[in-house]
């Protein structure tokens, strides 16, 4: 007792915390641990049960993606699915999920390995140092550095040495991971698959002066780079077109719903009863409703007639504007080169002598990644907007401190109830209840507060004027992490220490020495919050991610109750989820910062941080392989941002450690202070060198990668010098790639070529260049560097691409119905008119013609320097010699009709089709004809008998003409070629849909019935046997890299 009293007196004299009564942190800790463990077990048990119920939610990547990136079916056992994702090797994982997801997983794996090592070192060393024969603090605080008495300064050497080891290990690991990422990114960018995409050789040039904003000037400037210019798109912003297209896109689903309600009114129990009572007369009900923008205002109108008339009018206006309107070029342009070398060389060059002119330039912009609404913003508007968003973000951070402080104060209920008198009744509650409140509510409340942030930050980032969706994601990532660091890490640490010291400050006075000593003692005590925070995030967070409770509930809700029309059903059942790394990555980096900050101050946090990263690594590995699919991959550019952000946590931990040593005001800690300062300086140099070393490498491709003296394998490993190999013709044609190595033969062939004259004739020839390098599409008369483009004065009407001859017209306009035989042999009802568009149209250049694409990707220059006719391409509208009303929807996908289509005929006999097909799809609103509670066999997708091989054939079937069309307009504003989204209607037994098709097509509206059926018994629509929704073929292929 005497020893304990002496220790307590020393502790008080040294200004350390004097706890009044037992520290409730142990009770809160055990309550939170028990509660969260039980919740985690419950969530995991729920997942093992429901994962077999809904395949769309829990494993859509086993059937909704191409075969080369598809994952095998998960075993149906309770636990057998756990090891499925770990059977996938790293190389295969990278090929399937993309570099963004792969580097996200590598960050988690790196963090897990680091903190497991930290745990094995710190727990057996620092916990005894903090607890045995030290201070008299209670509970979890006894395990922190704050429990060490002043005269036990020698114990702090252990904390200092381990801190140095941890920091060196973390910096070294981050450096190695950046090296690995650089290799992976270079291999990704030099791969054959990526080299064939438009973004590999295309750059965006901004702030172009008016005098240079034309194809000829840009061609003259940029054609000097290796390989020369292939295509030029002058960006345009057709305001009126954009407005009309948006209105039309909003009206098409409304018309679909109105038509669906009208058709289904002839089916169901009420319709059968009406037929019996009225001698077989159908009870067709035309949907009526108000169309005024003001709710409950205006007279009710026939919705079908109203929407039909308005869409028909919009179709004509949009068509006319697309053919005649020229909105003028903006101050930016996309320029595509023949080689990656040319694109990466151009984007690193200073082009214009005036400041902020023709700069900045961007490379590796996917067509799906373009933010068209921000293309019309000049650099000064962008700078002003970014200054405004910076001010708004700062204001949000300052204002958000008030609710965050209140939430964090709940972790100290005793102090809170003393200061807020009306909460005194909480003191009468049982300790177990108060423990749950203190251990669970603060981190839960903090998580809720932070959940609404990403929405606001995304709006702000988009307003800044970024031209890429991935750039917006990266901007959100930076803002969100900064917000988390300030409001979660720093504010919680400071406010936690403040509330812990408030009572002692009132008792001992607010002298400087008292404040300093109290903060030195109680700042480590804030770790109690972060231990429970890491516990909550590590136990419940990963399993909630697995369960996907919100998507599951919404899927069931929409499928059963809200999704009625074929498109609504498809939107629920046919689309894949994607991950917003700008929102998902910052919490991972924040946990790294929390772990490194408290690794030596409160080592008890280390096991929970290790568990957090290990479990999240397993969960996200599973999710990326079976659930998520990213439409656009930035090539892992989020990873360098995350690495730099982890240095924030390292610096905070070092500065905090320095502050703790200084606050103890003991001369014997001078060596500790000096070593900590040197560690901070060393980390700063390492951070600076890391940025200097890797910033250029992760943005651009090094020139040496195109050299024949340097080889890069599929993992990005570089071999210099002596290992030569023979270059084959395949290397050149594939963009310099051969097997696992890369060659610059195509680049050298282009740079060694003599300049071409305006007529396209060669002035000289290098005999060392293979002749095939000078050919294009086996046409000897074409050239790789075409003549200077000029805009043809005439503006011809639309020449529309219709795909190959094997792809049938679907619904045209006519007064009789015929049956077309599709590739699968299925018969599809389609009214036709004589003179249907053929697959070959005049005016569309053949694959052998050499041309340059100018504004909106148009063909501007042909062989011999003559300008080709100015055309825009689209395939929903007629040839120029046909009247407008004869529109035809040309299907660019093969028709994979479900079994019911094969026997379908117009019939007034009830249930004839359904009896013949065994009721396929009856009662189901699943987009693939499967019940939510059933799983398909391994050999086939349950899509009305459609096999996986059929799907792969359709998904991979992109003929040369379609591919050329997609590439031609890849960087054209969508409004300039926007086609009316087909009105998607379900086929019904009585043939009502055929009458509606006839009326709509006569009004000039495109209609499709792909895979959509109406069950006559339930009067519900179902969708079967299709790969993508009508009208979404191009985007479908672009998203999946076809």
Strand proportion: 5-15%
Q: Trace the largest sheet across and list its strands.
A: 2-5-1-6
Oligomer: single chain
Shape: globular
**Overall residue-averaged pLDDT value:** 74
**Straight-line N-to-C gap:** 78 Å
Class inferred from helices and paired strands: alpha+beta
The total of beta strands comes to: 18
Biased composition (Polar residues): 795-809, 927-937
Family: Belongs to the CSC1 (TC 1.A.17) family.
GO cellular component, one term: plasma membrane
Domain 10TM putative phosphate transporter extracellular tail: 958-1020
Could you list some keywords that capture this structure?
two-stranded antiparallel ribbon, 34 helices, Alpha-Beta Plaits, four-stranded antiparallel β-sheet, 49% helix, alpha+beta, 1042 residues, 18 strands, disordered N terminus
Describe this structure in words.
The structure is a single chain. This protein has 1042 residues and is an alpha+beta fold. Among the domains are: 20-192 and 379-699, no CATH class; 198-237 and 327-365, Alpha-Beta Plaits (2-Layer Sandwich), CATH 3.30.70; 710-774, no CATH class. It is 49% helix and 6% strand. The chain is built from 34 helices and 18 strands. The strands form eight sheets. Strands 2-5-1-6 form a four-stranded antiparallel sheet, covered by helices on one side. α2 (25-50) runs parallel beside α20 (541-547), α5 (99-131) runs parallel beside α23 (581-597) and α20 (541-547) runs parallel beside α24. The longest helix is centred in the middle third of the chain and has 40 residues, at 469-508. The protein is globular, with a radius of gyration of 33 Å. Residues 1-23 and 724-947 have low confidence and may be disordered. Residues 795-809, 927-937 have a biased composition (Polar residues).
